[in-house]
Amino acid sequence: MAEDRELEKLRQKRLLELQAQQRFVDEQRQAAAQQEYEQRKEAILRRVLTTEARMRLSNIRMIRPEFAQQLELQLIQVAQSGKVALPLSDELLKRLLVQLQSDQQRETKIRRI
């Protein structure tokens, strides 16, 4: 009986080790996939934006990271749709930013009667 308990403890210990090892491998795969995604996104943005526009986007990323992420995805979608000439200039990026900002400022106001 003591041997059975020890054997069960060893099995549990080995199971925990294998689970920890699998979590580590999964985290590594996820990190590698995220890094690959970021690299592909940056490569696309290099083709899509001029140098000045990329600098503006990096400045936005420092101040408002969530907004910059959304903007990057929108820029990639616009570029892939073929609706605009590439690369997008800084001036066009400014106009897009003004348009996005005005869209975000629209709010619903409730007036009490």
Please provide a written account of the structure:
With 113 residues, the chain is an all-alpha fold. The chain has one domain: Orthogonal Bundle (Helicase, Ruva Protein, domain 3), CATH 1.10.8.140. It is 82% helix and 0% strand. The chain has four helices and no strands. It is elongated. The termini are far apart. 4% of the residues are buried. The mean pLDDT is 89.
List the topology elements.
Layout (H helix, E strand, L loop, with lengths): L1 H47 L2 H13 L1 H17 L8 H16 L8
What's the story with the biggest beta sheet? Answer: none
User: What's the helical proportion of residues?
Assistant: over 70%
Radius of gyration: 25 Å
Query: Strand tally, please?
Result: 0
CATH superfamily: PDCD5, DNA-binding domain
CATH topology group:
Helicase, Ruva Protein, domain 3
Number of domains: 1
Structure at a glance:
With 113 residues, the protein is mostly helical. It contains 4 helices and no strands.
Descriptors:
single chain, 113 residues, mainly alpha, Helicase, Ruva Protein, domain 3, 4 helices, elongated
